[in-house]
Structures are given as structure tokens and as C-alpha cells.
């Protein structure tokens, strides 16, 4: 039974990232169709609020703690970082680059989460231990991969052979594409910072307000209001809010219910169970799935810089994840040694004292 519990967060994060990957692939399609990214975020959060509000009310009405002003403020900033700004930056990066390139930046989120968590004491670092040194090495490798993604592009790969006219058009548009690529890279770096901040804010919210459906529903409501205000400022033409086809409607509903609803609930649960760094460490699954869909279905170009940089980032990410796992084992051994029977009084140690051994060391 204990072994199954250890696998639950892993299975949850695999399902969450596959759900997000499907949403991202669909969103890229409707963005290319001309729908404004701010409008997409607003619709997505409205759908998520409508879906989650009744679920949260009936599922957690008996266990829901009092909703205080400080918790509401934290949920407001959680929506601002993890919903409004993160999704706006990410979708804007989608517009300027490709789906595979944009999702590659998601892999940098665990490293930026780790670096931001250190000064806030949400993540511990012991340079004297093998686990601590591995986490630092993984962070350095990931940063090198991020620089490769940003600075090196290379000649793109296509699905099938390209003719002379296609090459001519690509040459004529190369200057504009280079400018778009640079803007997209900057926007996506901003996305990694705000998305990492959300994991840290969520870690604190989970301690004070552990109702995942309720907190996610409130966050979606705040996100809907924030993104709607921004959308009305930027997109004042009512025609810009119109959805023109079935694909746009299906994508908005799916991304709202699954992408901003169920996936955020799953991530909030995993942050509570295993900490923010563990939760964000499964993000490479998004890029793998989106790259496959983008290349074979959306016929997007894949650049050598994206492939090489992504491989470096993923290697560094899992060095960091291995270091975190090693640190957890070291912490368990230390606590077991402290709980070892002294003077023959084994019965003095109650089972409740052994439970924290399985907890994530990243939790404060």
C-alpha cells in the first residue's frame, strides 16, 4: 500500500502534463487562426470557473476552512502569476515561435523554481551532501541548455522534402523570423519566472488552505477577471472576441475544463504532497508530446538548437531531480537514526512520529 502511495504523485503528474500538452497543441492551432491570446486566456478561465465552482462547493463544503483576507490576497497573486501573466506570456511566445520551442522553456521552470525557492527557504540545499551538489550541477546544466535554446537556432528540419519556392519564401522572411524569435525568447523567459513563482505561492497556499478544488476555482475566477480586464484594454473591437469555428470552441472548453481546471487541481495536490520542485520536474513530457504533434500534424519546423538545448535541459533537470531524491533518502536515514530506540525504550516511539520520514524535504 505504501508503494502505491509513492507512485500516486508520479502518475498524477504524467496525466497532468499529457493533458496540458494536448491543450497546448490545440491552442497553437487556434492562435495561428488569428484569435487573440488575451481573449483565449479570458475565455479559458471563465470556463474553468464555471466547471470548478459547483465541484468545489459540493465536494469540499464540509471540510473547507474559513476564507480569510490574507488567503484571498495570496490566491489573487497566485492567479496573477500562474494564470494571467504565465498564460499570456506563454501564448504570446507561441505566436512568435513554434510549439516545440515554446514548450522547451517549460523545462526550465523546475530550475527557476529551485533557484527562487532557496532564498524563501522552501527548498533546502546542503553542499556537503551528494544530493545537494547534484541539484546545483543540474541547475547549471539546465541554464546551459536554456542559453543554447535562446542563442543557437540552426537550419530547420521539415517533414518531407521542400521545393525551391518554399526555400525562397523562407529566405525572404528570415529577417522577420529572427526578430520574432528574439522577442518570443524574451517573452518565454518571463513566462518561466512567473510560472515558477506560482509553484512557490501555491506551496504556501496549500499549507493554509488545503482545499484544492476551492482554491483552484477562486484562482480561476481571479484569473478570469484579470485577463478579461487586460483583454478589454487591448482588444476593444467586439469582433475580436468572436469564435469562428468548432475547433476554437472545443479548444477553449477543453483548455478551460482540463488545462485550467483539472490539471491545476492535480498540480496543487502534488505540490502539497511532494513540494514545488518535484511537481515542476515532469514538465519535459509536455514538450515531447507537443513536438510530436507539431511536427507530424501541424507540420511545424524543428530547429537543431531546440533539439540540442532541450536535451541539455532535460539532462540537467533529471540530475536535479536525482539529487532531490537522494537528498530525501539522506533525510530519511537521518530521521530514522534520530528515532532509533535508545536505552531499550522502543515502545516510546509512537507510529505518528515515523510518518514525517516520507515527507518531501522541500517543505518548510
Instruction: State the shape.
Output: globular
The residue fraction in helices comes out at: over 70%
Count of DSSP H/I helices: 13
Distance separating the two termini: 26 Å
Rounded to an integer, what's the Rg over CA atoms? 22 Å
Find the count of extended strands (DSSP E, 2+ residues).
Answer: 0
The chain-level mean pLDDT equals: 79
Please trace the helix and strand order, writing H or E for each element.
HHHHHHHHHHHHH
What share of the residues does DSSP label as strand, in percent?
under 5%
Low-confidence spans: pLDDT under 50, at least 5 residues? Answer: 161-172, 346-364
The largest β sheet comes out as: none
Topology of this protein?
Elements: H1 2-32, H2 37-59, H3 69-96, H4 99-104, H5 109-117, H6 130-151, H7 164-172, H8 174-208, H9 212-234, H10 246-274, H11 276-280, H12 284-296, H13 304-338
Helix pairs in contact: 1-10, 1-12, 2-3, 2-9, 2-10, 3-8, 3-9, 5-6, 5-8, 6-13, 8-10, 9-10
From the structure above, extract its key features.
364 residues, mainly alpha, 74% helix
Amino acid at each position: 500500500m505504501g508503494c502505491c502511495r509513492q507512485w500516486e504523485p508520479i502518475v498524477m503528474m504524467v496525466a497532468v502534463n499529457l493533458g496540458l500538452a494536448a491543450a497546448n497543441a490545440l491552442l497553437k492551432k487556434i492562435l495561428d487562426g488569428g484569435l487573440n491570446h488575451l481573449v483565449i486566456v479570458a475565455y479559458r478561465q471563465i470556463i474553468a470557473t464555471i466547471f470548478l465552482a459547483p465541484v468545489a462547493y459540493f465536494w469540499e463544503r464540509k471540510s473547507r476552512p474559513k476564507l480569510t483576507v490574507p488567503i484571498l490576497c495570496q490566491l489573487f497573486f497566485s492567479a496573477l502569476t500562474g494564470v494571467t501573466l504565465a498564460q499570456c506570456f506563454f501564448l504570446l511566445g507561441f505566436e512568435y515561435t513554434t510549439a516545440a520551442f515554446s514548450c522547451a522553456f517549460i523545462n526550465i521552470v523546475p530550475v527557476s523554481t529551485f533557484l527562487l525557492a532557496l532564498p524563501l527557504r522552501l527548498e533546502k540545499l546542503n553542499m556537503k551532501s551528494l544530493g545537494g551538489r547534484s541539484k546545483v550541477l543540474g541547475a547549471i546544466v539546465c541554464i546551459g541548455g536554456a542559453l543554447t535554446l535562446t542563442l543557437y537556432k540552426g537550419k530547420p528540419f521539415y517533414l518531407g522534402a521542400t521545393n525551391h519556392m518554399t526555400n525562397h519564401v523562407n529566405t525572404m522572411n528570415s529577417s522577420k523570423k529572427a526578430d520574432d524569435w528574439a522577442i518570443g525568447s524574451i517573452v518565454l523567459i518571463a513566462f518561466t519566472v512567473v510560472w515558477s513563482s506560482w509553484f512557490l505561492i501555491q506551496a504556501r497556499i496549500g499549507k493554509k488552505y488545503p482545499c484544492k478544488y476551492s482554491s483552484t476555482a477562486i484562482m480561476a475566477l481571479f484569473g478570469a477577471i484579470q485577463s478579461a480586464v487586460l483583454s478589454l484594454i487591448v482588444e476593444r473591437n467586439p469582433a475580436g472576441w468572436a469564435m469562428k469555428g468548432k475547433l476554437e470552441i472545443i479548444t477553449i472548453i477543453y483548455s478551460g475544463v482540463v488545462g485550467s481546471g483539472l490539471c491545476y487541481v492535480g498540480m496543487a495536490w502534488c505540490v502539497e504532497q511532494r513540494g514545488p520542485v518535484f511537481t515542476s520536474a515532469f514538465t519535459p513530457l509536455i514538450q515531447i508530446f507537443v513536438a510530436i504533434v507539431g511536427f507530424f500534424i501541424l507540420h511545424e519546423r524543428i530547429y537543431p538548437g531546440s533539439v540540442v538545448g532541450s536535451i541539455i535541459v532535460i539532462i540537467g533537470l533529471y540530475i536535479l531531480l536525482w539529487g532531490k531524491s537522494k537528498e530525501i533518502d539522506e533525510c530519511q536515514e537521518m530521521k530514522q537514526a534520530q528515532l532509533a530506540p535508545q536505552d531499550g525504550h522502543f515502545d516510546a516511539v509512537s507510529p505518528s512520529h515515523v510518518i514525517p520520514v516520507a515527507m518531501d524535504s522541500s517543505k518548510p
